[in-house]
From TrEMBL:
<keyword id="KW-0808">Transferase</keyword>
<dbReference type="GO" id="GO:0000287">
    <property type="term" value="F:magnesium ion binding"/>
</dbReference>
<protein>
    <recommendedName>
        <fullName>Hypoxanthine phosphoribosyltransferase</fullName>
        <ecNumber>2.4.2.8</ecNumber>
    </recommendedName>
</protein>
<dbReference type="Pfam" id="PF00156">
    <property type="entry name" value="Pribosyltran"/>
</dbReference>
<comment type="similarity">
    <text>Belongs to the purine/pyrimidine phosphoribosyltransferase family.</text>
</comment>
<keyword id="KW-0328">Glycosyltransferase</keyword>
<dbReference type="InterPro" id="IPR005904">
    <property type="entry name" value="Hxn_phspho_trans"/>
</dbReference>
<keyword id="KW-0660">Purine salvage</keyword>
<dbReference type="GO" id="GO:0006166">
    <property type="term" value="P:purine ribonucleoside salvage"/>
</dbReference>
<dbReference type="InterPro" id="IPR029057">
    <property type="entry name" value="PRTase-like"/>
</dbReference>
<keyword id="KW-0460">Magnesium</keyword>
<keyword id="KW-0479">Metal-binding</keyword>
<dbReference type="InterPro" id="IPR050408">
    <property type="entry name" value="HGPRT"/>
</dbReference>
<comment type="pathway">
    <text>Purine metabolism; IMP biosynthesis via salvage pathway; IMP from hypoxanthine: step 1/1.</text>
</comment>
<dbReference type="GO" id="GO:0052657">
    <property type="term" value="F:guanine phosphoribosyltransferase activity"/>
</dbReference>
<keyword id="KW-0547">Nucleotide-binding</keyword>
<dbReference type="GO" id="GO:0000166">
    <property type="term" value="F:nucleotide binding"/>
</dbReference>
Length: 182
């Protein structure tokens, strides 16, 4: 059994930093949606950790649903092609929707997804993302709640994968060069 610690070059955000920021974001979300129904839409698979932790920091009554979309495949660059692998079970008519994502990289996934969900007759659609890479943006995405802006490096952990690995790390880090097959 190999130790994943050997594959990491650097820890960018610790578990404590992630949880502290999530509890602040949850406080803002609680205040903004006071007296309203809220549907959290988690984007599989990357958003699993953010969704689970953000939801536990919230005091509001929320429902949770999931979509699976993929734009990356197994590589490290966005293909720009978004595919729906699993759609929502919930009718969005009149609902307040908050899309929950792990990361905004090029912005292609969320720009496409927000537009898709807005076409379904919801009351509102907003976005919460744990990480954002401003330098990687190819399209502008309006994000209401952002955890941390990070440099344009390939990061893993806390839901983020490289070839489906490292999602289970409780922190966010960069991979050592030898992992890319160097
Ligand atoms: C990753 C990440 C975001 C998206 C961000 O998902 O979880 O959903 O890419 O990239 P973008 O802003 O350039 O579109 P991925 O397609 O790798 O699927 P996964 O969540 O199942 O890992
Ligand atoms: Mn994803
Ligand atoms: Mg991925």
């Amino acid at each position: 059994q190999s130790d994943v610690g050997n594959d990491l070059a650097n820890i960018l955000l610790t578990e404590e930093q992630l949880q502290k920021r999530l509890s602040e974001m949850a406080g803002q979300i609680d205040a903004d949606y006071e007296g309203k129904d809220l549907l959290l839409v988690g984007v599989l698979k990357g958003a699993i950790m953010v969704m689970a932790d953000l939801a536990r920091h919230l005091h509001s009554q929320v429902q949770m649903d999931w979509m699976a979309v993929s734009s990356y495949g197994s590589g490290t660059k966005s293909s720009g092609v978004v595919r729906i692998l699993k759609d929502l079970d919930t009718d969005l008519t009149g609902r307040n929707v908050l899309i929950v994502e792990d990361i905004i990289d090029s912005g292609l996934t969320l720009s496409w997804l927000a537009q898709n969900l807005r076409s379904r007759g919801p009351e509102s659609v907003e976005i919460a993302a744990m990480l954002r890479k401003p330098e990687a943006a190819k399209v502008d995405v309006e994000v209401k709640y952002v955890g941390y802006d990070i440099p344009n490096e390939f990061v893993v952990g806390y839901g983020l994968d490289y070839a489906e690995k490292y999602r289970n790390l409780p922190f966010v880090g960069t991979l050592a060069p030898h992992v890319y097959g160097g």
